[in-house]
């Protein structure tokens, strides 16, 4: 790590901030394992009566601290993997690991090798969306999903402030994952139907679906259910357009191909 900091992008820019998603993901696993070990120790070793409890309290404080850091780091990790650097990543320098990384999917024929990913500035700085943490983002998404479902069931317009929050948080991985998990394929199809004729709303749905696809299981079964609902509503062409406009995860792109639906064309990197 210190070698990477001395020879990598930070050497040229003292204000540089960046996240290596693979490295942060590994750290999160280590911290989660450490917290489980602390909790197991606390459960198995209650302080006997009359024995000072300072050590036990200290272990509890450490566990609370770890959980707080995990909440913050998980949010930064989610931002990093859903917002790769548009220029293709920042090289991490000769001190960084350049060997094969752990496979992200264990599919047949997957050798597990991935090229060095570099870093992304997204999630590393102060800007991690409109919510303090993952829980706040999920809470807001649950409320909006409830309001959307109620509007659909009652045959009433979706409130304008719900549409506004969707636009404002379309790039938030925690908000979008929770929202579309709650709505499900049928709810997404109905949401797209309600957005017909409003380009700004359709754009927000496409962007947010693309972000959510990195975390939500938008596999072939999910997509088939979405398209089946669209067929019933007579909105298949509109739903297909939204799917093609969305910058989906590689996993969801593969699912689209298996259904004979070409994914969106890759966005060209910015000129240097």
TrEMBL record:
Residues 263-272 have a biased composition (Pro residues). Residues 84-136, 252-272 are annotated as: Disordered. It comes from the Bacteria. This is Uncharacterized protein. It comes from Thermomonospora umbrina.
